[in-house]
Structures are given as structure tokens and as C-alpha cells.
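Lab notebook, design round three. We kept the backbone fixed and only want residue identities now. Task for the bench partner: fill in a sequence for the structure below.
Input C-alpha cells:
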């Protein structure tokens, strides 16, 4: 399995390339607010900036800069700031945040005039306009500059007030169900050896990435709903959602996030070659049947190879199919023929897959695990089965009580978890939408924050006593979170 094309490489920290680029780019941006583009100063600053861009492209093959909270990620590595660069990085950060631009990417070398076009467009953007990135992209397209892309600044939960935006949730819901249909379509095409509409799939994944950036909680909530019937399709979409959400939290740039989504969506594509009766067999599998099931990663690689349409994506799709049952210490299956390091995509998808497989009821009467227990298992096996850094990110994301969990509080109220706290100390104190019972049904009440303390007693106002089964209370959780 090729290891090239792995989009995320920790290990080295190209901090110097990153800070060189930022300071040259920042000087040029500031110059653009002071001088017109014919000025000698601009010419000099442009040349300096070009140099920084081109040496990064030469050494790393690409240049992407992304803002995640108050940090810069340069080609996916966090820039370590030292004291003398602090001021300039901080000012630049503010300039970009004012314009709502959170990502800049150069995919190939650009001409001086193109760079000037870009910088003058950027400097001329109005402050506080969330759609600036769209405007800028449109202008770049008109000018035929396709080596530069920009992305929207991402706002994270703790910076944001809890907004109950219907439109956003509608969009998320659409993406979710469209994705399920697309997986069905693709599986169908593969079964009948028809061509797969990859363009459509890619566009959908880009939408999914945007939806998760805007509205992570609805999508995580949808993924947590356990009672959809079509397990396989649903499972694929959930694994994609969890994977994209993990990727987003560790700062993978958008374009690669949609690749990750695609790879996750089709990680189990090899299962189409395992007979359905075996996959849904409630009783124990015979050794032969088990061997066949365990062959699905290899079938997956073969299925991807047979589809020419995946293009540049195919090596990542093969990695995901091959690696998702391999463990961090390389045990698991299938046995790799040589020592290899699992790709980042493989490690992410393995976590998402493990969680989603255990959290929902499957064929027969196998009882699903509660989330708390699964996270416990993952933590215990962190470093052996799973990448320990990613496990931490995942647990923070899911919380001890995942979105959509029905809980009983010590005040005898019941409610549904609607937001996980960002600080890991309070994973057991999410925000909960209280439910009130009246006229024979449960209705949405206020949203309370379980971190709230009672000033008189100095104790928490409300705490979770235990989780409840929504079916027993005839509550359709999805109505409350989407
Ligand atoms: Fe699998
Ligand atoms: Fe799976």
C-alpha cells in the first residue's frame, strides 16, 4: 500500500517556512493598504513574498495556512510561536479574523501580478462579513487564478452562543440523508458494475464538510440516533461524520477533510462481496464465515482499484479500506505484509468505525453498548488499539453523554443533551434541553447548563443521575435535536 499522498504528516514542524510566509505575506498585505500596486515598495514586498511561497512549495509541495482558534496551522502542523514573532503573528491573526478568512492555500507557483491581485482583493474586503471568502473565491475565479484558494474562518463552540438556527439544521439534515442515498447509489453501481458518479459524491462531501464546520452538533446528533433501519448505509455516513469532525478538530484543511469523508464513507465497500446472510447472521459465525468477513478490507481495496473514476482519491480510499480494522500497534486484520505506519486517515476512520459499530443495535438481538462504556474501552486500549492523541480528541468530541442522550437529573427533571462542553473537565456536565410533560406528550423546555452552581450551597444546581431509554418514554429524540 503506498504511503505517499498521506495528507497529514506530524513529525516535522515546518514552523520556519510558516513564519517566513506569514511575515512576508503580512508585510505585503499591510503595504497594500498604504501604497498603490505600481509602487516600488509593493514590488519589493511582492518579490519577497513570492520567494517565501515558492520555497515552501518546493520543500513541502504545498502551502496551506489555517487558523484554528488562535493558532496557525502550516501544512497541518501547528506553528510554534516564539517571542520575537509573537507580535506580528498576533496582528496578522486579527487582520484575517476581521475579514473572516480562516484558510489560505497555494497549490502551485503564482506570478507576481496574480499575488498582487490576491492581496489587493484581500485587503479591500469589508470587515465582519462572513461571506468574504465566497466573494474572494469568485473574484479569483474571474481572474483565472486557480492556484490560490481561501476558506472561511471557523468559529468554535466555546466562542459561539448557542444559536438554534433552523436553516443550518435543515441544511445538515439534507446533507445527512443525501449522503445515505449516495452510499446506496454507489453500492448499487458497484454491485451492477455501473459507473459511479464521483463528481456528485465529491460535491456532497464538500457540503458535508461545510455542514460540520457550521453545525457540528446537529450532525453528531443525527449520527447518534440509533433507530434507523438500514444499518449499513447509515453506518457509513456516521463513520464519515465522526471522521470529518475529528479531522476538523485537529486542523486538517477543508479540501483534505472532504477526501477523509469520502474515504470514510466507503471504508466498508468490500462488504458487498460478503453474502448478506453472513453479515446479518445473529448467531456465531463459523471459522470459514469469519475468515470471509475478515477479508472485506482486501475486497475493499480491490473494489476501489476496479473503479477508475476515483482518480487522485483512490490511494486514500484504498488505505482506508485496508487499514480500518488494523490496530495502532499493527495487530488486527488483515496482516500487513511489511511493517508500515498506519496513515492518519486510517487511524481516524478506525476510531470512528469502532465507536459506531458498538454504539448501535445490530443484526439479531445483540445489545448496543452505552457510549460511556465504549469510550472507557477506547481509553483503556489507547496506544495499543488506537492512536492515543486521536482518542483524546474523540472523547472530548463525543462527551461522556453524547448529543441526543436522554438523561434523568437529580432534580427529577428529564432532558436531552444538546451541547457538549469544550473543556474536558466538564464532559459530564453538558447543556441539556429540559423536557416538560403536558397533555400526554413531552415538550421542549429551557436549555440548562449543568455547570451552573447554586450560589447558596456552592453545589451544582443539576447533575445527571443516569441515562434513560427514549423508547421507554416514547420520546423521538430526533425531533428534539434536528
Ligand atoms: Fe469494516
Ligand atoms: Fe465499518
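Proposed sequence:
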Amino acid at each position: 500500500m503506498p504511503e505517499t499522498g498521506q495528507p497529514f504528516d506530524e513529525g516535522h514542524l515546518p514552523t520556519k517556512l510558516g513564519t517566513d510566509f506569514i511575515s512576508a505575506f503580512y508585510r505585503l498585505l499591510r503595504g497594500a493598504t498604504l501604497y498603490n500596486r505600481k509602487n516600488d515598495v509593493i514590488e519589493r514586498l511582492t518579490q519577497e513574498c513570492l520567494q517565501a511561497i515558492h520555497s515552501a512549495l518546493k520543500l513541502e509541495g504545498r502551502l496551506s495556512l489555517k487558523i484554528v482558534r488562535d493558532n496557525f496551522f502550516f501544512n497541518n502542523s501547528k506553528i510554534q510561536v516564539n517571542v520575537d514573532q509573537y507580535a506580528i503573528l498576533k496582528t496578522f491573526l486579527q487582520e484575517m479574523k476581521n475579514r473572516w478568512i480562516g484558510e489560505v492555500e497555494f497549490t502551485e507557483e503564482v506570478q507576481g501580478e496574480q499575488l498582487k491581485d490576491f492581496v489587493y482583493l484581500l485587503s479591500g474586503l469589508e470587515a465582519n462579513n462572513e461571506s468574504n471568502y465566497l466573494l474572494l473565491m469568485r473574484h479569483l475565479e474571474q481572474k483565472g487564478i486557480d492556484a490560490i484558494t481561501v476558506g472561511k474562518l471557523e468559529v468554535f463552540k466555546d466562542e459561539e452562543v448557542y444559536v438554534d438556527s433552523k436553516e443550518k439544521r435543515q441544511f445538515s439534515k439534507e446533507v445527512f440523508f443525501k449522503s445515505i442515498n449516495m452510499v446506496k447509489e454507489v453500492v448499487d453501481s458497484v454491485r451492477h458494475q455501473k459507473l459511479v458518479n464521483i463528481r456528485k459524491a465529491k460535491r456532497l462531501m464538500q457540503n458535508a464538510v461545510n455542514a460540520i464546520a457550521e453545525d457540528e452538533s446537529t450532525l453528531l446528533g443525527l449520527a447518534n440516533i440509533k433507530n434507523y433501519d438500514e444499518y449499513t448505509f447509515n453506518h457509513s455516513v456516521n463513520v464519515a461524520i465522526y471522521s470529518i469532525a475529528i479531522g476538523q478538530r485537529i486542523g486538517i484543511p477543508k479540501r483534505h477533510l472532504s477526501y477523509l469523508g469520502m474515504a470514510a464513507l466507503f471504508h466498508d465497500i468490500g462488504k458487498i462481496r460478503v453474502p448478506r446472510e453472513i453479515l446479518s447472521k445473529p448467531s456465531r459465525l463459523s471459522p470459514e464465515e469469519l475468515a470471509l468477513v475478515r477479508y472485506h478490507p482486501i475486497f475493499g481495496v480491490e473494489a476501489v482499484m476496479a473503479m477508475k473514476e476515483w482518480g487522485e482519491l483512490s490511494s486514500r480510499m484504498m488505505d482506508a479500506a485496508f487499514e480500518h480494522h488494523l490496530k495502532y500497534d499493527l495487530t488486527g486484520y488483515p496482516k500487513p505484509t511489511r511493517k508500515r505506519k498506519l496513515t492518519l486517515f486510517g487511524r481516524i476512520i478506525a476510531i470512528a468505525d469502532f465507536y459506531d459499530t458498538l454504539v448501535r443495535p445490530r443484526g439479531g438481538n445483540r445489545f448496543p453498548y452505552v457510549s460511556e462504556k465504549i469510550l472507557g474501552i477506547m481509553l483503556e486500549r489507547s496506544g495499543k488499539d488506537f492512536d492515543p492523541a486521536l482518542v483524546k480528541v474523540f472523547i472530548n468530541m463525543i462527551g461522556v453523554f453524547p448529543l441526543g442522550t436522554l438523561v434523568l437529573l437529580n432534580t427529577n427533571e428529564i432532558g436531552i443533551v444538546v451541547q457538549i462542553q469544550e473543556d474536558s473537565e466538564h464532559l459530564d456536565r453538558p447543556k441539556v434541553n429540559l423536557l416538560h410533560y403536558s397533555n400526554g406528550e413531552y415538550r421542549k423546555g429551557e436549555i440548562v447548563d449543568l455547570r451552573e452552581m447554586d450560589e447558596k450551597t456552592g453545589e451544582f444546581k443539576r447533575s445527571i443521575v443516569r441515562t434513560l431509554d427514549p423508547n421507554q418514554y416514547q420520546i423521538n429524540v430526533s425531533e428534539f435535536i434536528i
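Keep this in mind before ordering anything: The pocket of fe (ii) ion (ligand 1) is lined by residues 268, 296, 324-325 (CB under 6 Å).
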